[in-house]
């Protein structure tokens, strides 16, 4: 069964959740640059500062010492202590790493904590941890991901007596099949989720494993989470995070059906449901809308922190690149993909997402297609895709219904199916089931071996980017691998993609030349680029406000001393629509959480 959805026009009713939320106590948020914010900084800095100072090497290694907390850090740590949990809409550059490290101490009575982070931030976290430890009391630290230590990649471990132990687990590690019991084995009494929007989708393996651990013990682990983009399209993205962190003090519904009813009225959808009983959130009519009233209720809740002031003093300018036009022959191919639903090689594009992705690729001068080097017959290829689709549908349906250990990833579900069908040896400790579409798929799986190939159509865009990069030092962000590879070939500039050495290699850049950087590998969590660069170009504008917020935060963050200038590709309507979609979502975010969004 799919998720319950309210019927069109279904208005939220009076409910225990609504009564509970109306009755929640209110506290004023801490505004930056006020005497209260300053007092909080001094108080929290003194609380966590080392009692016995030690000689430090901060100025030699980083140029400055961390001797005082930032306002957002002080406020967050204060609320963690008071609320015994936290949900934060904390902007890029406000210093979430320090909160990550100090949260186990701030919350009190913590023995073991798990910190969930993107994998590309672990190296920087260890650097910040060691710098912070020279001036503040910190927990022990163990990473479940290799970092560079004296030139080699290895897990980091520093154990301190009588301190909580903080286990750093990348989201990517938690999603692996062998990590199905990882959180159970660590046994945390506190879970911290940095970049918590990665837990917004309750259908992913990672989120399911987190949710299962939250429900596995009584009392459950305490929960602290934050992101610069914790919300984007719907309040459903953050409701379960609020409930996990704040329990019955959460300012959103606990009941799933009630949450969907609220979502239908509050979310930015073409035909929202009537406000219904939610008008009780705005009894005197002082707010222009029910959405604004709910926003006020959220930001005045103990345990919710939103950085309402920009964390960077320099200016950020974002504008479209209006110096380029799409060649007529390429414009015709894009029109064929969108309107006629046909790729340049004649392949039909059935799904809307396929058509959109093909149009974006063509706007960059190429497109991806399937090739069959072994020249399999068309009939066999059709059968291969049909059986693959049938097995994927059965697998997805089972995945949506399963949530227990050893059945929480597609690989583990497949292994259980093979045991149930007698294709793997039975194991009394592991589950099994009997799928109907797995064996037909396995019979044909190896008979067809398609490959993806990029077909380059026009170099107008890569030539344009190469010329820009030659004129002015800047970061050129790409999302499509072929575009990044092609641009590197034409320009001779370094391309920074992913891989174990990616953080080290891009950290060597000093802003003496332009670079080509992958959004996927370096667009979130990467610190240091702001010291060398202040200009950037987004070759494929993302549609999501979250990704834009993160991406702009690579240069527009603490440590930047120059105004930041950003241009994005806008030479075709499909590119402009991507940016417009992101701004629409950003308006919803700022209306709900009252934060600052960099693209507005």
SSE inventory with pairings:
Elements: H1 16-22, H2 35-48, H3 58-61, H4 71-83, E1 86-89, H5 96-107, E2 112-117, H6 122-133, E3 140-143, E4 147-149, E5 152-154, E6 157-158, E7 165-170, H7 171-174, H8 182-186, E8 190-194, H9 205-216, E9 222-227, H10 236-246, H11 256-266, H12 290-299, E10 304-306, E11 316-321, H13 328-340, H14 352-363, E12 366-371, H15 378-401, H16 410-420, H17 438-444, E13 451-456, H18 460-471, E14 475-478, H19 481-491, E15 495-496, H20 502-507, E16 515-518, H21 519-522, E17 535-538, H22 545-552, E18 564-569, H23 573-593
Parallel strand pairs: 1-9, 1-10, 2-7, 2-8, 3-7, 8-9, 11-18, 14-16, 14-17, 15-16, 17-18
Antiparallel strand pairs: 3-6, 4-5, 12-13
Helix pairs in contact: 2-4, 4-5, 13-14, 15-17, 18-19
């Amino acid at each position: 069964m799919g998720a319950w959805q309210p019927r069109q026009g279904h208005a939220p009713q009076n409910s225990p959740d609504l009564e509970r939320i109306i009755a929640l106590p209110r506290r004023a948020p801490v505004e930056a640059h006020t005497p209260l914010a300053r007092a909080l900084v001094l108080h929290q800095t003194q609380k966590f500062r080392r009692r016995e100072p030690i000689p430090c090497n901060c100025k030699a290694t980083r140029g400055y010492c961390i001797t005082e907390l930032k306002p957002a850090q002080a406020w967050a740590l204060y609320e963690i202590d008071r609320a015994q949990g936290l949900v934060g809409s904390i902007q890029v550059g406000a210093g979430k790493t320090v909160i990550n490290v100090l949260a186990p101490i701030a919350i009190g009575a913590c023995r073991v904590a798990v910190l969930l982070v993107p994998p590309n931030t672990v190296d920087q976290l260890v650097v910040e941890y060691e710098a912070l430890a020279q001036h503040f009391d910190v927990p022990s630290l163990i990473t479940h991901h290799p970092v560079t230590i004296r030139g080699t990649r290895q897990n980091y471990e520093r154990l301190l007596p009588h301190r909580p132990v903080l286990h750093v687990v990348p989201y990517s590690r938690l999603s692996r099949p062998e990590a199905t019991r990882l959180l159970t084995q660590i046994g945390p009494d506190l879970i911290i989720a940095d970049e918590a929007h990665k837990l917004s989708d309750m259908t992913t393996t990672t989120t399911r494993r987190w949710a299962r651990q939250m429900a596995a013990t009584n009392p459950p682990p305490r929960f602290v989470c934050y992101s610069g983009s914790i919300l984007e399209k719907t309040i459903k993205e953050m409701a379960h995070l609020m409930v996990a962190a704040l329990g019955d003090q959460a300012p959103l519904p606990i009941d799933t059906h009630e949450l969907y009813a609220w979502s239908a009225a509050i979310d930015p959808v073409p035909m929202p449901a009537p406000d219904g009983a939610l008008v009780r959130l705005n009894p005197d009519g002082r707010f222009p809308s029910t959405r604004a009233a709910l926003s006020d209720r959220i930001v005045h809740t103990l345990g919710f922190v939103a950085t309402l002031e920009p964390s960077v003093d320099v200016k950020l300018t974002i504008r479209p690149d209006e110096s380029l036009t799409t060649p007529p022959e390429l414009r015709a191919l894009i029109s064929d993909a969108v309107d006629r639903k046909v790729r340049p090689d004649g392949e039909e594009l059935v799904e809307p997402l396929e058509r959109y992705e093909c149009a974006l690729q063509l706007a960059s001068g190429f497109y991806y297609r399937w090739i069959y080097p072994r020249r399999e017959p068309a009939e066999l290829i059709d059968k291969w895709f049909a059986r693959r689709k049938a097995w994927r549908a059965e697998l997805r349906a089972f995945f949506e219904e399963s949530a227990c250990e050893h059945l929480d990833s597609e690989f583990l579900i497949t292994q259980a199916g093979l045991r149930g069908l007698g294709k793997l040896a039975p194991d009394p400790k592991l589950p099994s089931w009997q799928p109907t579409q797995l064996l037909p798929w396995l019979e044909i799986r190896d008979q067809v071996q398609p490959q993806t190939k990029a077909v380059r159509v026009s170099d107008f865009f890569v030539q344009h980017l190469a010329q820009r990069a030659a004129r002015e030092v800047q970061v050129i962000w790409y999302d499509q691998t072929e575009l990044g590879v092609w641009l590197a070939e034409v320009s001779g500039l370094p391309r920074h993609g992913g891989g174990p050495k990616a953080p080290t290699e891009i950290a060597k850049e000093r802003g003496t030349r332009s670079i080509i950087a992958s959004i996927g590998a370096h667009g979130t969590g990467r610190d240091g680029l702001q010291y060398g660069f202040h200009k950037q170009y987004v070759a494929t504008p993302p549609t999501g406000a979250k990704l834009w917020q993160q991406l702009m935060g690579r240069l527009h963050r603490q440590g930047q001393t120059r105004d930041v200038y950003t241009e994005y590709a806008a030479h075709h309507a499909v590119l402009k629509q991507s940016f417009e979609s992101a701004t629409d979502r950003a308006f919803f975010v700022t209306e709900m959480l009252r934060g600052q969004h960099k693209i507005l």
